[in-house]
Write a structure and sequence with these properties.
Helix content of chain B: 55-70%
Shape of chain B: elongated
CATH architecture of chain A: Roll
Radius of gyration of chain A: 14 Å
Distance between the termini of chain B: 77 Å
Number of helices of chain B: 31
Number of domains of chain B: 4
Largest sheet of chain A: 5 strands, antiparallel
Bound molecules: guanosine-5'-triphosphate
Strand content of chain B: 5-15%
CATH class of chain A: Mainly Beta
Number of helices of chain A: 2
Oligomer: heterodimer
Structural class of chain A: alpha+beta
Chain lengths: 93, 757
């Protein structure tokens, strides 16, 4: 009866020009522009504080190069590269 | 009637620590109905007030993202606790306050606990408690849960909030943008009209805007439910058009907006360079190059300590069980009852009790890993490997533990948050060769591959790992498809674990093991005992005691002849002996004859013993064949025949269901060596070789032993951790089919291509 699935206005994975969180190197920082992926995934990240404009810094990559360790809002969180790729960022210093 | 209190908070904020500080030892651990999420409850008294406390699962948010979150949301809505204690990690305020904003909306009377004040100090954070309390509209109590500092103040505040009605009117609302507030207003009005009795209308309206399924279902049940949902649909559309995002995302952003404002007002970051010790430790422990070797070292240590240290008390328990059996067999006259108690009950449970030290040590080490914060790092380091089979990095720990014993390993899957991950890990865990399978490998490999025993045994381990990986991939592509959650893992700061918490954790899990395994094992071992004990008298085709008599007679005749001969020779020799210097018995002649005689004599008694032994083996085999267990074995013989197995193998495998190492003692019984054998007994090895088993069949048997249905204790653990018989039976059936298929393949292709011949 009602359509609760919203239109596709989210970041499209095809837009390869965007800088992704997964592109950042250890020690680099970025600000979140947009999070793509499934609703469940986006909501989870937002609820954990990865909101728009928040600064996120890449602490390091795991020994096997995946996942990566990030610092956001003063705590440490780990995401897989495949998920970090869904997060568009702008580099900050 | 005590007042009901619920403790809510993020994972790792110190809920359990504070729960323990409040309740002391007066607590119970159980499961939430329908799910294997631990449910902890306890009670405490303060002044004249009694309190019942529930430690809710740790969650980041109140939505239906996981079983834990559903539980928390439902508990708070349905049970309406008198006071909610919201625990907040003061060193990580912003993220922790997110849940608080939801709890505020939910509207239960609340006490906010700022835990980990010591960590906040270390970080150089100064928090204005008064202002925070005003902003959040609830009393705020700073605490150091670990040392218990502030617990008394907390108790006082709880009493105040629980008894003062004034605090029940919630003074604050989380403010949203005007456009959202408008929609909340519209929905609230409709809801209010349809049901005047509903509390916390604002909470309902916000949840509806977030498209929360539970709330939608509740509203749909109302009179004008459809109308309300229609309005909700329009509101969500509006919000999405305006903000270009989902209602839930927009609202979450607004919550963080509120939080950031609050934090800005009441937290001063002192301008000192605080040291992030955790980060420093992690520079080494999760280092690109050192991370894996250090992890390997920890795993090795964990294994080593568990099994080496555990082997001392293991021996004591072994000895204890043996002397208990002796004691009881001395007290009870020989009877069926005595045998039931001694061989069935004590023997069976004793076989499992032996593992207790291992299990407790293991749980203790796991508690250290968890409490220190290293477990999260394990997930971080191993995620890439485990991701391959569709699992979370943490699942690596139970897999490694499986090499010791599948039971604690399966219980260790509790460290995984998602139910799907837990089930998958539980299902593939039995393929990790536990230590109980090793004696079987050593026996069979030693009997049939004496030169390459080590290689064969090692291949069994590898083969098990491969089976686990393949099955994991299979399951995650079929029955457990698509239930996987995104990997979002918090890496909490390292902590020095407290002894109290370690002991509590260890005891809780260990106790569950004793409780659950005890009953299952008892029933199982009695069953096997019954099968082996009845029927009491069996008719044998051969008269073994007669044969034994004949054998003994013939050997004693030989001995008699030999002695006679010896005496005659001596007599002769003595007659021809003339020296006066040396007494005859000291002469060389006598010595020679005597030596000859002794050696022949011992030859004869050895031959007698070995003939009698062979006879005994045959008799025991014959008897067992005619007991129920042998008949069951016979029934299965045609089924296992394509694998090259005989009724002996099927009996051994059936008894191995109680515990896999029993396969060895069953062979002991079948070959008449008695059940007190170990894997290096010659009797069993020679019996196995003589039984007509070929190396090829032996290989199939090894693979079957590796793969087939885990022991009873493991089955009980699977039932416990998956919570359903469906997965339990599935696991049994799957492993049986896999074992059968593999052993069949080995026998079939092996015969065809003449391997190992
Ligand atoms: N420094 C410090 N550590 C604390 C304090 N309170 C608890 N901890 C530690 O924080 C860690 C987590 O505590 P728990 O009580 O297990 O946390 P929890 O919220 O129950 O965690 P989950 O069961 O995962 O939800 C443990 O290592 C505690 O020892 C505190 O006030 N200060």
């Amino acid at each position: 009866m009602f359509n609760f699935r919203k239109p596709q206005y989210r970041v499209s994975a095809e837009n390869l020009d965007d800088l992704r969180l997964s592109d950042l190197k250890p020690g680099e920082k970025g600000r979140i522009v947009e999070i793509g992926g499934s609703d469940q995934f986006r909501h989870r990240l937002i609820e954990m504080g990865l909101t728009k404009d928040i600064e996120i810094s890449v602490d390091k990559y795991a020994p096997l190069l995946d996942p990566m360790e990030l610092i956001v809002r003063g705590y440490h969180i780990s995401l897989r590269g495949i998920d970090a790729q869904k997060i568009v960022v702008t580099k900050s210093t | 009637m005590g007042l009901n209190i619920a403790i809510a908070g993020n994972p790792n904020c110190g809920k359990t620590t504070i729960f323990n500080a409040l309740t002391g030892a007066r607590q119970q651990v159980g499961n939430w109905p329908g799910v294997t999420v631990e449910r902890k409850s306890g009670r405490f008294k303060h002044l004249e007030h009694k309190f019942d406390v529930i430690d809710l699962p740790g969650t980041y948010s109140l939505t239906a993202f996981s079983a834990e979150e559903r539980i928390v949301q439902q508990f708070l809505l349905n049970e309406k606790p008198d006071v909610v204690i919201n625990i907040i990690d003061a060193s990580n305020l912003e993220r922790n306050l997110f849940l608080t904003t939801q709890l505020i909306e939910l509207g239960s009377p609340m006490v906010i606990v700022l835990n980990m004040m010591d960590m906040a100090d270390e970080k150089g954070l100064e928090i204005d408690i008064e202002t925070l309390a005003t902003l959040l509209g609830a009393p705020v109590v700073p605490i150091v849960g670990r040392s218990g500092e502030g617990i008394d103040v907390l108790k006082e505040k709880i009493v105040r909030v629980a008894t003062e009605l004034s605090t029940k009117s919630r003074p604050i609302n989380i403010p949203y943008q005007r456009d959202i507030e408008n929609e909340i207003e519209k929905i609230s009005n409709l809801v209010k009209q349809s049901n005047k009795n509903l509390h916390e209308i604002r909470w309902i309206a916000v949840k509806l805007l977030e498209s929360d399924e539970q709330t939608r279902d509740e509203i749909r049940a109302l009179n004008s439910g459809e109308a309300i949902l229609k309005q909700v649909g329009q509101s969500i559309d509006r919000i999405e058009r305006l903000f270009k995002d989902t209602g839930r995302a927009v609202i979450s952003h607004a919550r963080y907006g509120f939080i950031q404002g609050a934090v800005r007002e009441c937290v001063i970051e002192k301008l000192q360079d605080s040291v992030d010790y955790s980060r420093r430790i992690d520079r080494v422990i999760t280092n690109r190059w050192l991370g894996l070797p250090i992890f390997g070292l920890f795993m090795w240590l964990m294994f080593k300590i568990t099994y080496d240290l555990g082997s001392f008390p293991m021996d004591w328990i072994d000895a204890g069980v043996a002397s208990l059996m002796n004691l009881i067999s001395g007290l009870l006259p020989e009877s069926m009852f005595a045998s039931l108690v001694i061989d069935g009950a004590i023997g069976g449970v004793g076989a499992i009790a032996v593992f207790l030290p291992n299990i407790f040590i293991l749980f203790f080490i796991i508690a250290i890993l968890e409490d220190s914060g290293y477990m999260a790092r394990v997930a971080f380091i191993m995620d890439r490997v485990m991701h391959n089979i569709g699992l979370h990095g943490k699942a690596f720990i139970p897999m490694v533990m499986g090499f010791g014993c599948n039971v604690p390993a399966i219980m260790g899957t509790r460290i995984l948050e998602s139910r799907r991950d837990r089930i998958l890990t539980v299902l593939i865990n039995p393929f990790m060769s536990c230590s109980a399978r090793l004696p079987v490998y050593i026996l069979v490999a030693g009997a049939f591959f004496p030169e390459n025993a080590a290689t064969v045994i090692f291949s069994m381990y590898i083969f098990g790992i491969l089976a686990a990986i393949a099955s994991g991939k299979l399951f995650s592509k079929t029955i457990l498809k698509g239930m996987s959650k995104p990997f979002v893992l918090e890496l909490p700061p390292y902590q020095r674990p407290t002894m109290r918490s370690l002991i509590l954790h260890t005891w809780e899990r260990g106790y569950l093991f004793i409780q659950k395994m005890g009953t299952v094992i008892l029933v199982g071992s009695i069953l096997i005992w019954v099968l082996g004990y009845f029927p009491r008298n069996v008719e044998l085709d051969r008269d073994y005691s007669g044969e034994r008599k004949i054998v003994s007679q013939s050997y004693s005749q030989d001995l008699f002849k030999l002695t006679l001969n010896f005496e005659t020779s001596i007599k002769k020799d003595r007659d021809s002996y003339h020296s006066e210097m040396v007494e005859y018995p000291a002469s060389t002649g006598y010595k020679q004859l005597k030596a000859q005689y002794d050696s022949l004599k011992s030859h004869i008694s050895e031959a007698e013993a070995s003939t009698l032994f062979a006879l005994r083996q045959q008799e025991m085999g014959d008897i067992t064949e005619r007991k129920w267990i042998g008949r069951v074995g016979k029934v299965f013989e045609p089924i296992v025949a394509p694998l090259g197995f005989t009724w002996r193998e099927s009996v051994a495998l059936i008894t191995g269901f109680v515990a896999k190492e029993i396969v060895v003692s069953t062979y002991g019984v079948l070959f008449g060596v008695g059940d007190d054998v170990d894997e290096k007994s010659h009797g069993v090895i020679s019996g196995l070789r003589a039984s007509g088993m070929t190396p090829l069949v032996a290989l199939g048997f090894l693979v079957f032993t590796l793969l087939y249905t885990p022991c009873l204790a493991t089955v009980a653990a699977i039932k416990r951790e998956t919570g359903t018989w469906a997965y339990t039976f599935f696991s049994i059936a799957y492993s049986l089919v896999l074992a059968y298929g593999m052993a069949f393949g080995i026998n079939y292709f092996g015969t065809m291509f003449q391997w190992l011949s």
